[in-house]
């Protein structure tokens, strides 16, 4: 199969998934107890009769269900995710405005986890019974079992009282002036704790995974061959073994993207990070359904995009797939 | 050559469950996990008899630190309610949600995975597309939406957790069914005229059980974490006193008193740790290849 055809197929697949998410949103509005118009208005019982009539007309709520679905899908695909009456703004604008910080947080945490996790995993595989190995196992079991918001709160306590070095809330300091560069540094400074909280769980998992697959690969024939022909040990690890050991990490990281976004919702709430998670939290308190559904839709888009990217990265790292199709 | 004394020896050494149980007892992770879980269960189910304090009752000044008064050994929350009483009484609800949600997750997962793996073809294609779709939705956000749209009772919360977390189990079950469905004993069962239903539930499933038991143990832990997350966001059942509820209520007072959130969070951590360690131990026990490591 040619590359273009493959990409086209993946894109079509992604598009169908997007449609499915929209259909789910539509279903949720209709399954929810009460009048769909009330749900769309986002204020249970609080909306005026005039407003409800307006909603019924725009969404065709007096027409058959399939017409309603058609109207909903067409509007959504044109970028109209509805209107938030709580924030008095189009949902798309709200979501787009908050997506940047979330993507920054998730990407930083993920890259940090993959990079440091793989490094630790390689180190651990060098001495399977050593200190690093034990530490990786212990941290991964603890990280897996601790509620992520609790880990975040422990860091808040640690860095608010014991060692007040890092900021524990918000994305930047409003009172601080300075140019663009100062602002970037300030944001990175505020990013440290949230990204650490989110990253540490996955870091330990990736380290454990890398360790396991490294141990398996280091016992294989081609590694023995490489060693026998006198390849330096560093190169055996870094060049020969790691290239194969990293494949499961890429797969898992792609599969876990949805759960990382879920984690980000909690981490953002702990650190008042102004992303989609805090927006979701605020709009749930306000029962602002269009915004919540908009966030669900948009974050699913992020996952779909991440899966596409993983697919492409996988093709880059694993030549067998590239040629075999 | 070894001499076999009696047929009893063969039977004993061949029973895989017995062998797994022995391996489990030798795994330190599994035993530590069992120990932690027993401690947690004793604490929350026997605790009320020794410490009969109502967790809703205001007994002392708000935000009293631990050790400051004998009336509240672990301090009080923002309303002046006893934290220790809360820790003791909050356990059953958390464990209950974890178990119910875990059972829902495993049931949906096994049903979907079994049918997909057994029938293959169109059924498989269709079910796997649905599974994939559910994996695209960020689980916590989806559960948040479900709980917000309906009333957050303990059952809605459990059901929401189950609905968002079954895909992993489904994939695992499917993989096991695909592996087993063409083995000789399945063909044998088919050749003596066993119906599909019998083959799925009585022939294949029992042989796919080992990894599913491990997954079920881990799933309960994950469900407890999930419930804690929802409660932290204020989406738990407000009428059930749970550790998650304590965290959600105390969240805003974290800088006024570390114990308000730290202690219930620690209980959740301990419980989930217990389940993950038991899962690790079972995994070692069922997997003879890993035992050597």
Features:
heterodimer; A: 325 residues; mainly alpha; two-stranded antiparallel sheet; 14 helices; globular; B: 293 residues; 74% helix; elongated; OppC_N (chain B); MetI-like_sf (chain B); protein transport (chain B); transmembrane helix (chain B); peptide transport (chain B)
Number of strands of chain A: 2
Strand order of the largest sheet of chain A: 1-2
Largest sheet of chain B: none
CATH superfamily membership of chain B: MetI-like
> Helicity level of chain A, as a percent range?
over 70%
Strand content of chain B: under 5%
Tell me the β content of chain A: under 5%
The low-confidence parts of chain A are none
Q: How much is the radius of gyration of chain B in Å?
A: 23 Å
How widely separated are the two ends of chain A?
A: 6 Å
Shape of chain A: globular
Helix content of chain B: over 70%
Subcellular location (chain B): Cell membrane
Organism (chain B): Sneathiella sedimenti
Protein name (chain B): ABC transporter permease
Family (chain B): Belongs to the binding-protein-dependent transport system permease family.
Walk me through this protein's architecture.
The complex is a heterodimer of chains A (325) and B (293). Helix content of chain A is 78%, strand content 1%. Chain A is mostly helical. In chain A, strand 1 and strand 2 (89-90) form a beta hairpin. In chain A, helix 10 (233-255) runs antiparallel to helix 13. The mean pLDDT of chain A is 82. Chain B has 293 residues and is mainly alpha-helical. Chain B has one domain (18-291): MetI-like (MetI-like fold). The chains are: A mainly alpha (325), B mainly alpha (293). Chain B: InterPro entries: BP-dependent_transpt_permease, MetI-like, MetI-like_sf, OppC_N. Chain B: It is found in: Cell membrane.
């Amino acid at each position: 199969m040619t590359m273009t055809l493959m990409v086209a197929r993946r894109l079509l697949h992604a598009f169908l998934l997007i449609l499915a998410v929209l259909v789910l949103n539509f279903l949720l509005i209709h399954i929810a107890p009460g009048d769909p118009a009330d749900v769309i208005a986002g204020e249970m019982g609080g909306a005026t009769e005039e407003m409800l009539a307006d909603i019924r007309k725009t969404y065709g709520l007096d027409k058959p269900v399939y017409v309603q679905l058609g109207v909903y899908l067409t509007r959504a695909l044109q970028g109209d995710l509805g209107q938030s009456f709580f924030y008095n703004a189009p949902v798309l604008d709200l979501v787009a405005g908050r997506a940047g910080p979330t993507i920054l947080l998730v990407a930083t945490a993920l890259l940090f986890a993959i990079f440091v996790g793989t490094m630790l995993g390689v180190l651990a595989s060098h001495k399977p019974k050593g200190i690093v190995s034990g530490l990786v196992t212990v941290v991964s079991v603890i990280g897996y079992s601790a509620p992520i918001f609790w880990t975040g709160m422990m860091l808040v306590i640690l860095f608010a009282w014991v060692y007040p070095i890092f900021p524990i809330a918000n994305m930047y300091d409003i009172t601080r002036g300075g140019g663009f560069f100062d602002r970037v540094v300030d944001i990175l400074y505020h990013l440290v704790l949230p990204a650490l909280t989110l990253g540490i769980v996955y870091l330990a998992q990736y380290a454990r995974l890398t360790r396991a697959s490294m141990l398996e690969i280091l016992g294989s024939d081609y590694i023995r061959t490489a060693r026998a022909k006198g390849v330096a040990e560093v190169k055996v690890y870094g060049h020969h073994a790691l290239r194969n050991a990293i494949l499961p990490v890429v797969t898992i990281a792609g599969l876990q993207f949805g759960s990382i976004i879920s984690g980000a919702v909690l981490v953002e709430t702990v650190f008042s990070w102004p992303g989609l998670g805090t927006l979701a939290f605020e709009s749930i308190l306000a029962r602002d359904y269009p915004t919540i559904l908009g966030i669900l839709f948009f974050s699913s888009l992020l996952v779909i995009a991440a899966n596409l990217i993983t697919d492409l990265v996988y093709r880059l790292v694993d030549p067998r797939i590239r040629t075999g199709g | 050559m070894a001499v076999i004394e009696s047929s009893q020896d063969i039977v004993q050494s061949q029973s895989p469950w017995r062998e797994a149980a022995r391996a489990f007892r030798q795994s330190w992770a599994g035993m530590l996990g069992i120990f932690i879980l027993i401690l947690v269960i004793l604490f929350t189910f026997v605790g009320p008899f020794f410490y009969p304090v109502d967790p809703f009752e205001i007994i002392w000044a708000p935000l009293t630190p631990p050790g400051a008064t004998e009336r509240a050994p672990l301090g009080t929350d923002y309303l002046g309610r006893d934290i220790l009483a809360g820790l003791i009484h909050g356990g059953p609800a958390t464990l209950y949600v974890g178990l119910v949600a875990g059972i829902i997750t495993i049931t949906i997962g096994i049903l979907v995975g079994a049918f997909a793996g057994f029938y293959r073809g169109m059924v498989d294609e269709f079910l796997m597309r649905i599974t994939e779709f559910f994996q695209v939705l960020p689980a916590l956000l989806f559960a948040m939406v479900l709980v917000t749209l309906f009333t957050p009772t303990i059952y809605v919360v459990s059901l929401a957790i189950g609905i968002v977390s079954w895909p992993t189990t489904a994939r695992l079950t499917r993989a096991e069914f695909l592996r087993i469905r063409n083995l000789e004993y399945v063909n044998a069962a088919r050749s003596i005229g066993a119906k599909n239903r019998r083959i799925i539930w009585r022939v294949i499933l029992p042989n796919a059980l080992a990894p599913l038991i491990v997954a079920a143990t881990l799933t309960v832990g994950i469900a407890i974490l999930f419930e804690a997350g929802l409660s932290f966001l204020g989406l738990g059942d407000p009428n059930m006193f749970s550790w998650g509820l304590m965290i959600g209520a105390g969240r805003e007072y974290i800088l006024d008193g570390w114990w308000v959130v730290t202690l219930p969070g620690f209980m959740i951590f301990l419980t989930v740790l217990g389940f993950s360690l038991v899962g690790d131990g079972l995994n070692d026990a069922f997997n003879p290849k890993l035992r050597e490591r």
